[in-house]
Amino acid sequence: MSMVGIEAINLFAGTACLDVAKLARHRQLDMSRFENLLMKEKTVALPCEDPITFAVNAAKPLIDALTPEEKDRIEMVITCTESAFDFGKSMSTYCHDLLGLNRNCRLFELKNACYSGVAGLQMAVNFVLSQTSPGCKALVIATDVSRFMVEEGGEALSADWSFAEPSGGSGAVAMLVSDRPHVFQIDVGANGYYGYEVMDTCRPSPDTDAGDTDLSLLSYLNCCENAYLEYQKRVEGAHFGETFGYLAYHTPFGGMVKGAHRNMMRKLVKAKPADIEDDFQRRVAPGLTHCQRVGNIMGATAALSLASTIDNGDFDTPKRVGVFSYGSGCCSEFFSGVVRKEGQERLRALGIKARLDNRYELSMAQYDQLLEKSRELKFGTRNLIPDADFIAEARTALKQPTLLLKEIKEFHREYEWVS
């Protein structure tokens, strides 16, 4: 059977971040409840950042590492998002242009709430497996931005300001998919998917979210169990407690993952509380490390958890990683693949932790000002020149060339590289 999977993967988590414990105290939230989020920081998008800047900054190091011949074998670019700024034009066209890719390329976009990134990955995997173009590559970029906007006078547009605000992040994960799976070799055919109609969360308008958080939690738990049970039917001998060296869960916030893992271990492994906690720390916690510093980046979050697992796990010997993706509305999938030391070394060479460390930490006063600024970049913005002086120190925080939004002119977006 042909090998397929992730040849290279990279995370870009913006230029600015916020300490979410400080935010919780600033909002006067119940700190005993806040601790259950298991969150530390969140990426905050500046007015000069959008889903394209996050996407291209994530993909650029992967593309730059290719030879011209390898680069020309990228024959599909898929953007996966619920943060698009155009009802028709795909963001993949911007990414394709800014990355200088071959024009003999399929360009399109997927929307399916937080499941979109894995939907794009699986579509790319099957394109490579089809062998209709032997040796081809596909670039999958899951990119999402949370902007908590306020109306004139300071009233929140979002109905729930409480615990959604600390957990909502921004970022992108780029994945190069090919028949050279250096980083993550997919277990072909080892998939369990499960979906049904539920109104747990939705976006009734481009800039607002709505839903039922309790229903969303129940749907997540239901899908996690049933997607895995379908995987187990298809994969002979699969055992939730023994088959996987690590588990990477879609992570709206760490506490939700901890609850889901506890539920799975109780039902499927009949494990005791102390054993469940040990198992969580050993197999799940590595995947939360980066998620706790970025926040929920929706379509990119399952891939973020996988990247965090690879970056922070022990892969001196090859290990199988189980991945669970959930998207509200809903669709879910449990799949798996193998990670080797080479994959970890390739990922670590990109310095994700250092870039997270180098983000500019916003003060609460700056963050509140940013909420006001977010109104300028609402859906359908026709003309805008972002305020280049607004938190200017954050623009160069990463100490590396970074793509930023320069101008919106008659709806078309123009970008520039800033060092």
TrEMBL record:
CDD domains named among the record's database cross-references: init_cond_enzymes (cd00827)
Similarity annotation: Belongs to the thiolase-like superfamily. HMG-CoA synthase family.
Protein name: Hydroxymethylglutaryl-CoA synthase family protein
Organism: Chitiniphilus purpureus
Residue intervals of the Hydroxymethylglutaryl-coenzyme A synthase C-terminal domain: 277-414
Every Hydroxymethylglutaryl-coenzyme A synthase N-terminal domain range: 4-178
Gene3D superfamilies: 3.40.47.10
Pfam families: HMG_CoA_synt_C, HMG_CoA_synt_N
Source species taxonomy: Bacteria, Pseudomonadati, Pseudomonadota, Betaproteobacteria, Neisseriales
PANTHER family given in the database record: 3-HYDROXY-3-METHYLGLUTARYL COENZYME A SYNTHASE, HYDROXYMETHYLGLUTARYL-COA SYNTHASE
Domain of life of the organism encoding this protein: Bacteria
Keywords recorded for this protein, A-Z: Transferase
